[in-house]
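Quick review question:
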């Protein structure tokens, strides 16, 4: 369908229609801008919501132990990512679609202006031709009337006998002139009519259809561009739907990760004091004036149930009972006080061995401190290995650097590792003393770790730091392991062991291991092993890279942890 053929007489209507198309493009641009503003505002409000409900610094450590709080924070993170996708929609719409619409509007305005100018020129040409035709027609009409009048005058003169021959001849000549002028005007009118008809045919069959075709192409291009842009807007939103779905899946996964059982266990781990339940209140025999006190038989801390002095008629005691500070209600008040004490002590600075905390909380704090030392030792060890490798590179290729420049750093690193290991052994000693067991990190391990560090260093003398409360390393002296008293209170005995022997009673078998690589014992207290050899594990790696094992020939010693694959029995119990 062609506008030039079907709408040949609707030039003004087409001009108005194309202007409406441009107006729609501008309106579409405003729509997209408002849409982007809404998306950005929605994203901003979501991020503001996430920020307002983020945990405060003082709450992070308190609530990160509970799954409901941790998973809620994960939901907030997913919501923050979801808000970012709405920003992506706005940014892509602004950077792609709105920009293309503005370019389209500019091109359409320019093209429409050119088409209207071409159409105006074609119409002006036809108007000029019609004006000339009208002028020539009017000239012809005037000349024709004058010729008719001249002819009538001649006929009258020729019939009038009163006129002379000269006057008749003059009238005749005038008639001839007017007839000639009429013929010339007629010929001009006919020529102009033919020319105007040709212009009119060209106008309606060639020139104006060409203008209409340009305007039709411009309008169809606008419609196709609008179609493409609407699809592009949809594609932009569709492109972020997988990410939005991923965020929603993350929220669902977070909800699945909430466990009431685990949270209840976390509450127990956090607030359990480790004290035994108070025993029965003793009967006060007033006749004998004696009190049977069994409150501390099992190590229960003294509280409101401690033995009291005085009689039942004591006014102070009665007042205390009336206020709820004594009697049976003292049990619950003391429990609440104990919990408040735990919370207060966890928020304040504790003693080095955390002995001011309840037993369970003390054990938890010591284990946390030991884990921190292990991580720090692992980090320093990795840094040391990197410096040693760099030193080897410098030794092999001096052009890259001076290997002696790393000596001081390696020495400082070795001292730092020694200090960390000593600190860790100190806290392990606190934990062992608390459990009533010998320290798991004994002198044998410390000598091994010292030997391993001194071997990796280049002719370096290691200084052993003396830590208060820790056993000192005495070279070339036999180690003495003191057995633990059994449950009946009988002392098992003390055994002096020469170098290389270990106390079997103090190190029970906790698992098995298999050697991944062969190892030759080059350090004091270590044992050799072959690839694939099966052994028993007596003591786990305490962070220094060594594990204590027992071979099938009953020989014991330390082997590198990275050379073996362990399986612990407690893993089977889980």
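Suggested answer, residue by residue:
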């Amino acid at each position: 369908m062609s506008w030039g053929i079907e709408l040949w007489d609707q030039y003004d209507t087409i001009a108005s229609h194309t202007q409406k198309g441009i107006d729609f493009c501008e309106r579409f641009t405003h729509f997209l801008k408002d849409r982007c503003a809404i998306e950005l505002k929605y994203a901003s409000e979501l991020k503001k919501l996430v920020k307002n409900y983020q945990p405060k610094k003082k709450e992070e450590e308190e609530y990160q132990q509970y799954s409901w709080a941790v998973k809620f924070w994960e939901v907030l993170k997913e919501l923050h990512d979801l808000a970012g996708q709405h920003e992506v929609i706005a940014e892509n719409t602004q950077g792609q679609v709105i920009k293309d619409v503005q370019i389209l509007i500019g091109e359409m305005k320019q093209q429409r202006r050119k088409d209207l100018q071409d159409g105006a020129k074609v119409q002006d040409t036809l108007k000029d031709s019609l004006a000339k035709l009208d002028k020539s027609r009017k000239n012809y009409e005037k000349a024709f009337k004058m010729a008719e009048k001249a002819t009538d005058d001649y006929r009258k003169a020729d019939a009038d006998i009163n006129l002379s021959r000269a006057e008749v001849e003059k009238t005749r000549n005038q008639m001839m002139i007017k007839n000639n002028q009429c013929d010339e005007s007629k010929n001009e009118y006919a020529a102009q009519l033919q020319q105007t008809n040709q212009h009119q045919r060209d106008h309606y069959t060639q020139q104006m259809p060409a203008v209409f075709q340009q305007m039709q192409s411009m309008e169809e291009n606008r419609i196709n561009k609008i179609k493409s842009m609407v699809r592009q807007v949809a594609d932009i939103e569709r492109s972020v739907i997988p990410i939005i779905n991923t965020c929603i899946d993350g929220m669902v996964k977070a909800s699945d990760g909430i466990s009431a059982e685990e949270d209840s266990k976390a509450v127990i781990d956090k607030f359990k004091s480790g004290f035994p339940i108070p025993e029965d209140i003793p009967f006060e025999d007033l006749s004998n004036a004696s009190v049977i006190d069994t409150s501390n038989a099992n190590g229960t801390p003294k509280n409101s149930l401690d033995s009291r002095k005085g009689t039942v008629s004591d006014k102070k005691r009665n007042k205390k009972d009336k206020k709820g500070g004594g009697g049976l209600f003292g049990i619950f008040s003391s429990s609440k006080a104990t919990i408040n004490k735990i919370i207060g002590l966890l928020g304040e600075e504790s003693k080095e061995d955390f002995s001011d905390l309840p037993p369970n909380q003390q054990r938890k704090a010591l284990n946390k401190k030991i884990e921190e030392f292990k991580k720090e030792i692992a980090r320093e060890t990795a840094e040391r290995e990197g410096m040693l490798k760099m030193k080897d590179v410098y030794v092999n290729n001096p052009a890259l650097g001076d290997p002696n420049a790393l000596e001081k750093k390696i020495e400082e690193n070795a001292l730092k590792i020694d200090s960390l290991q000593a600190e860790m052994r100190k806290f392990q000693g606190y934990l062992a003393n608390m459990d009533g067991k010998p320290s798991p990190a004994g002198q044998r391990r410390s000598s091994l770790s010292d030997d391993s560090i001194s071997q990796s260093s280049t002719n370096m003398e290691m200084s052993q730091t003396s830590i208060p409360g820790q056993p000192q390393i005495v070279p070339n002296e036999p180690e003495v392991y003191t057995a633990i008293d059994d449950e009946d209170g009988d002392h098992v005995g003390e055994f002096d062991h020469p170098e290389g022997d270990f106390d079997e009673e103090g190190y029970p078998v906790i698992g098995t291991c298999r050697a991944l690589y062969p190892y030759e014992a080059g350090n004091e207290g270590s044992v050799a092993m072959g690839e694939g050899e099966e052994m028993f594990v007596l003591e786990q790696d305490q962070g220094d890279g060594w594990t204590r094992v027992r071979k099938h020939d009953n020989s014991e010693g330390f082997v590198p942890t990275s050379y073996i694959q362990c399986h612990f029995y407690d893993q089977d119990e889980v």
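Why it works: The first strand starts at residue 284 and ends at 285. Residues 67-159 form the longest helix (93 residues).
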